[in-house]
Design brief:
mainly alpha, 0% strand, elongated
């Protein structure tokens, strides 16, 4: 029974995290990073526990989990950063708990990726749509076009940079 209790204690957080991920009545992008980070911490804890079977199970799970953590941590971190409650503070704390020597660098990588994504978006959807040579304006387009669009996009970029800091 003690072994069963240990296994339940080990697996219960995975059930809770799965419930968070499957939410349909609320946005979940902002909680992915935190929950995946919790899985990483949980696996690290059990990879060094006294129970040999749990330790081996956790280490095997770490190997499989590492590819997801490494590949998706930036994308997941971007979602957490966009949550006004977290911003970069949550990333700093999370990365610092995992590896204090690389935490600052990892946060900077996430911030830069978010900036790059925003720049790519604006270059494709803002300047790209107005510079299309195959596109002919309709009267409706001319009435709805704002001479302040470029200024508005500059303000959006400035607000994003302020938000990130």
């Amino acid at each position: 029974w003690e072994r069963g209790q240990k296994i339940c204690d080990f697996l219960k957080p995975f059930s809770t995290i799965t419930t968070y991920f499957s939410g349909v009545k609320y946005p979940t992008a902002n909680i992915y990073f935190i929950q995946v980070w919790n899985i990483e911490l949980l696996l690290r804890k059990y990879a060094d526990c006294d129970d040999e079977d749990l330790r081996l199970m956790a280490r095997r799970m770490q190997i499989k989990f590492a590819k997801y953590w490494d590949d998706y941590s930036i994308v997941l971190a971007m979602g957490a950063m966009l949550d006004p409650r977290f911003k970069t503070q949550i990333l700093k704390k999370a990365f610092d708990r995992l590896d204090p020597t690389t935490s600052e660098k990892k946060v900077l990588v996430v911030v830069q990726n978010l900036k790059d994504l925003y720049e790519e978006y604006t270059s494709k959807h803002v300047t790209g749509s107005s510079s299309s040579s195959n596109y002919s304006s309709t009267p409706d387009d001319l009435l709805n076009e704002s001479p302040l669009d470029d200024d508005l996009n500059a303000v959006r970029l400035l607000n994003l940079l302020i938000f990130l800091s």
